[in-house]
Amino acid sequence: MDSLRKVLNGEDTNEDSSLLSGVTGGGGDSCCPSLSWETRIKGFIACCIIGVFLSVFGIVWVFFANYIGFALLYSLGTFTTLGGTLFLRGPTSQMKAMFKDTRIIATIVMLISVVLTIVSAIAWNSGALCILFCIFQFCAFGWYSISYIPFARKAVKGCMDSCLA
């Protein structure tokens, strides 16, 4: 509990300890250091809402068999949601965090899945592959996201093990 209090008060200098550590300590490497904490949170939430809206709107295009629209909107929604974290950490810190040992596989799978989702819709004209890569993209983004929550991956693995056993 003391470590959480230190992070939230900006006393912890360990960058690995939290998504918020760079911000609470004075803005980290943010490209807008003058933004208040409340404004950063609002920007993050706005990006997340816009990203989810774009993704859901993209899913609607599947029902009209417009896989190009689906792939582009869903992938744009993923990047918009991911971009919201730039408000919290800043671009340099976020990129370093994305490619740490604990997240590098999820990050690479997510980025490759985004590219393959778009390629399967535009170049290959395959709706089935487009949806399959979108599912990979969703799972990789979820796995990447929970990597920021301590012990969340371990809990999900335990839950999956018990469900499959």
Architecture overview:
With 165 residues, the protein is mainly alpha-helical. Helices cover 73% and strands 0% of the residues. It is built from 9 helices and no strands.
Q: How much of the sequence is in beta strands?
A: under 5%
How do the helices and strands follow one another from N- to C-terminus?
Answer: HHHHHHHHH
What is the approximate shape? globular
How large is the radius of gyration?
A: 18 Å
The main β sheet shows up as: none
What percent of the residues sit in helical stretches (DSSP H or I)? over 70%
SS content category: mainly alpha
Number of helices: 9
Low-confidence stretches: 4-27
Q: What's the total number of strands?
A: 0
* Distance linking N and C termini: 34 Å
Overall average pLDDT: 85
Quick structural gist:
The chain is mainly α.
What descriptors fit this protein?
mainly alpha; 9 helices; 165 residues; globular
Q: What is this structure's SSE topology?
A:
Elements: H1 2-9, H2 21-24, H3 37-62, H4 67-83, H5 85-89, H6 91-98, H7 104-122, H8 127-146, H9 152-164
Helix pairs in contact: 3-4, 4-7, 4-8, 7-8
